[in-house]
Amino acid sequence: MNANVITTTNANDIKAANAARRTVAFGLVSGALFAIYCLYLSREHITYVGYFLRLKPIEAETLFLFVDFLALFGKMLTSRHLSAKTRRIGYKWMIGGGTASLVCNILAGVLQGNFGEAGYGAALVGLIVGLEYTIANTKAKASTKRAKRTTVPQAQIPTVRISGTGRKCQAGCACKRHAVNRPAPILVSAP
Fold this sequence. Notes:
This protein is mainly α. 59% of the residues lie in helices and 5% in strands. A two-stranded antiparallel sheet has the order 1-2. The two termini are 22 Å apart.
């Protein structure tokens, strides 16, 4: 990037960007709360399957941890800030946990002879997957209007002599021991 380019933004752009960030934050929080509610409902179905498999009460009540939370843990491992190998492992955990959750939610309805509940369980898992995708891919728009980048020709840039110790030389300094010519910053405002 050229060191002689300085951009400024107008106050309306900053207000619009802040409003977009607030909207995204509200969407993320409400989406996360709704996903937590869906996980609670999914937990009920998974617990029923645990009791049907004749697990002890503590095992049946905590079975959802080994199903839904492993899928969420896998989702966490798919962050683009992690290595490619870690993301692949995360996708495997996420798909495995999501598939197990889907099977348990459908199976709970089928075991009770209620196909409406089975469909509801499948819709819950689909909704959780959709919310996870939306939350992971929601980003605020940086600005409604980009600042104009302008370059100033080198010949028009005034220089300021700055010493190595941070001391500015006087206008007519001729010592040339510690003075360095550096371009002075020029602010260019966007139209």
